[in-house]
Write a structure and sequence with these properties.
Elements (H helix, E strand, L loop, with lengths): L12 H11 L4 H12 L3 E4 L4 H13 L4 E5 L6 H13 L4 E5 L5 H8 L3 H4 L1 H18 L3 E3 L16 E4 L4 E4 L7 H10 L48
Parallel strand pairs: 1-2, 1-4, 2-3, 4-6
Antiparallel strand pairs: 5-6
Helix pairs in contact: 3-8
Bound molecules: iron/sulfur cluster.
The site of iron/sulfur cluster (SF4) has 13 residues, from helix 7.
Length: 238
């Protein structure tokens, strides 16, 4: 592996392809070891504390027990999500888990943009409560980790281990791209990891309470997100 440190500015398309080629037969733990070797404390995990998040938190704790993890706290999450974060903090006390909040409270947002912005303009709502906070987080980081898996949706089918993230002018590392839904759950059960109780109530993918529904009859794992609207991603992943 090259020993030159990567950054968004030095990661040319050729370099990015070469790095992914070097990593192509590695597993998620190897990718994490490589990423923390490259970026050290400049690497931050933006965790949503879904099922993939539980796996990635556990793998990260094996590589970097005091890793920095950020949760984008929109203030609109389910109580079950806040509960699982508490359990993760208790299980991994060395991890630095931060709650990153939007600059506007729910009331301020309603006063400025009108009530129920998640219905009238969900893209703006996500921009205010997720994208802008993540921009602020990534200004102080070189690269970020995400639990994206290729099988999750057509928009994620071509995700690489190492991705040029033009939206945030960063490098996005996705160690779980090859994991299947069953792999995720086998790992959670094998290591008795905490997980969001909503997964047992038909929610495969869990975001804000206003925009997440259970999925019936084995629909695709993200079918319950922004159900009934054109929206399929919050804008963090493009
Ligand atoms: S997921 Fe829904 S409630 Fe959450 S920030 Fe986006 S639009 Fe707003």
């Amino acid at each position: 592996m090259s020993d030159t440190l990567l950054s968004y500015k030095t990661l040319t398309t050729e370099r990015f392809e070469a790095v992914n080629k070097e990593l192509e037969n590695k597993d998620a733990l190897d990718v994490l070891k490589w990423a923390y070797g490259q970026f050290g404390d400049g690497l931050v995990y933006a965790c949503s504390f879904g099922a993939e998040g539980m796996v990635l938190v556990d793998l990260i704790s094996r590589v970097r027990p005091d890793a920095r993890i950020v949760f984008l706290d929109t203030h609109f999450h389910f109580k079950e999500t806040y509960e699982v974060i508490k359990r993760v903090k208790a299980k991994y006390p060395k991890l630095r888990i931060e709650m990153k909040e939007p600059s506007l409270s729910a009331e301020e947002q309603a006063a400025q943009y009108g009530p129920e912005l998640w219905k009238t303009d969900p893209d703006m709502c996500c921009r205010l409560r997720k994208l802008q906070p993540l921009e602020e987080v990534l200004q102080g980081a070189v690269a970020w980790l995400s639990g994206l898996r290729r099988e999750q949706s057509p928009t994620r089918a071509h995700t690489q281990f190492v991705n040029i993230d033009r939206r945030f002018e960063s490098i996005k590392i996705c160690p779980l791209i090859h994991w299947k839904w069953d792999d995720v759950w086998n790992y959670i059960k094998l290591y008795h990891l905490p997980y969001n109780e909503l997964h047992d109530k038909g929610y495969p993918s869990i975001g804000c309470e206003y925009c997440t529904l259970p999925v019936e009859g084995g629909g695709d794992s993200r079918a319950g997100r922004w159900s009934g609207s054109h929206k399929t991603e919050c804008g963090l992943h493009q």
